[in-house]
Amino acid sequence: MGACSAVGRGADCRLHPIPWFGFPAKPTKPSIPPGLIMLKYLLVLVILRLGAVDARLLCGIEMITSNMMEIQIKLDCSSLLAQHQECCSNHGVCYVFKRPWQVCDQNYCDCVYKIAGKAGGLCQTYGESFCTLVKETGRNFYDFYGKR
User: Which residue ranges traverse the bilayer (predicted)?
Assistant: First the structure.
């Protein structure tokens, strides 16, 4: 005779408050699939790894262009990232102190040519295009710098 028949015909033993009938007093929670557990661990590792990624390249106040520059440099010229960040920082400081934008832009180009010219190839091409971009668009953002 089974435990359920002892309680009565048609009774649901899983809800019975006495655990010795073969079922726990409280319904158990469904177990988490192993694949989902692995996915959680993978997500945590990815998040932790993002914190260890090299510093972001912030070049100017317009984020789309800054992100484009960062991607190109990190993919093809990663050894120049810190140096290019310094060129960008100096350019921003120049704008903040309201030196003539032409002087700031030329200083940026000189800095980029100095580091990218030594690297040659694709890095040099990127340096030339970044310089052109700054000279063509930098003056549009010049007035935003240094305002409070």
Answer: 38-59
Are residue 104 and residue 125 in the same domain, yes or no?
yes
Segment 33-59 shows an average pLDDT of 59
Q: Which two tokens stand for residue 131?
A: 């310089």
In this structure, is residue 108 part of a structural domain? yes
Based on the fold, state whether residues 68 and 134 are members of the same structural domain: yes
DSSP codes, 66-113? HHHHHHHHHHH-GGGHHHHHHHHHHHHHHHHTT--HHHHHHHHHHHHH
**58 domain-assigned:** no
Q: Cα–Cα distance between 106 and 86 in angstroms, integer?
A: 15
| Side-chain-facing half-sphere of 124: CA atoms under 13 Å | 6
Residue with tokens 């050894």: 79
Domain for residue 56, yes or no? no
Residue 136 makes CB contacts below 8 A (sequence gap 6+) with none
Integer-rounded Cα radius of gyration of the chain:
31
Q: What is the pTM of this model?
A: 0.58
Given this model, what pLDDT does residue 51 score?
A: 45
**How many CB atoms lie under 10 A from the CB of residue 135?**
15
**Domain that residue 80 falls in:** 63-144
